Amino acid sequence: IDELVNGIKDAHIIMIPGGFSSGDEPDGSAKFIVNVLKNEKVKDAIHKHLDDKKLILGICNGFQALIKSGLIPYGRIKSLTEDDLTLYKNDSYHHISTSAITRVANLNSPWTQDFEIGQLHEIMFSHGEGKLVGNNIEKFKDLCAFQYCDFEGNAISNGKFNPNGSLYAIEGMISEDGLVLGKMGHSERYGTGLYKNKTIKGIQNIFRNGVNYFKGEK
Is 60 a catalytic residue? Predict the structure, then answer.
């Protein structure tokens, strides 16, 4: 724990990646990650990290951990209630491995600062529990960063385009202060020569945006 805390103190960006464990259900790796995040020393270091206006990113199981710890939407690790957001089983009740198109819905974060509202990206997905739900989701829908959409950029619940059935078509969400971003899609899964049959070319470079935030560039 002390080594982890020291690493947090030295970091500008904390990233919690995807990764399966115990068959990825229930709650995947998130339940283990959240237990670590709730350690008092780790929690204090994370809160100091955010107080210093540094960044956190979670992808796939990392997004689950951010949701289930409270870091999204609250920007703080806290106990949650049954009304809070969570990620539930895909509508199909099966693991999905596919690509989907998403639209940029929010620029109020360093992670999205270099995009344009409505900009489209095609992202790779691989998860069993990616449906964002919650009794209070209406309260936080404006924190949506990316939405599943059709070829024309319309946010959509249709399973052909929204592979898990997330409410309000939310694929990614930021914290209230914009410093934390979580998303189900694997924006890191790009490489030369991969996905040649993609409909939309290019990459969703949230990583460059995060670095530019510290460099003071856009």
Answer: yes
